[in-house]
Specification:
Layout: E1 13-17, H1 22-33, E2 38-42, E3 63-66, E4 69-72, H2 74-84, H3 95-122, H4 124-134, H5 140-161, H6 168-186, H7 199-211, H8 215-221, H9 225-238
Parallel strand pairs: 1-2
Antiparallel strand pairs: 1-3, 3-4
Helix pairs in contact: 1-2, 1-7, 3-4, 3-5, 3-7, 4-5, 6-8, 6-9, 7-9
Amino acid sequence: GASAPTLVDMPELVLHQFESSPFCDKVRRLLHYKQKPYRTHEVPPTETLVRLRRLNPTGKVPVLEHREVVISDSTEIARYLEDTFPEPPIFPTDPKARALCHILEDWADESLYFYEAWFRFGLSENAGEFSRRSSQSEPPLLRKATERALPTLMRNVLRLQGIGRKPPERVLTDFDRHLEALERWLGDGDWLVCEHLTVADVAVYSQLSCAAETAEAQGVVADHPTALAWMERVNGATSPPV
């Protein structure tokens, strides 16, 4: 059989993640796009309370380790990857385009994220399934308790943010408007900001793709063929090599 990998063979990049997180999906896709091998450490949700804080005091994922360097937050990780591995680029060179890239990434991370969370955890018909998925890395003794706690925790977050206080039909209408705006912005272009894929494309894609794991969001996305075609382009450019 094949021999076990030695320390020399192990990738220098280690991604501490929740596999189901759109922010971790964003980082994985950026690593694939830059063709950088990496290892993952799946963080049990309860580990964010203690162990993960040794790497990241906020207790949040993703966290990327590269040799002696530790970077947390997907936005900071994207910038670190660009500085350390500049080819292929994920940021435009033009200052105005770079500013737009920042604005669209922030739209994805700070607005679209809450729609993704609402579809997966805010809707009671989906919350059980996605809580089960998110709890699989927990030790068996903690798994059921985490699975039960996650929907309440996420619904509290959504209520505090505001989206969780809206009636479902209003959230669906608002989400549809975001897709419509995305299509109008794309027009007949291939990418959101410039002539090549950028972190803005990946950030927006990851939120929409995770949301579209639910039938409710998938139904909205399916009504937007230009957005769907763009999503297929982003997925094709950032999926792991077969």
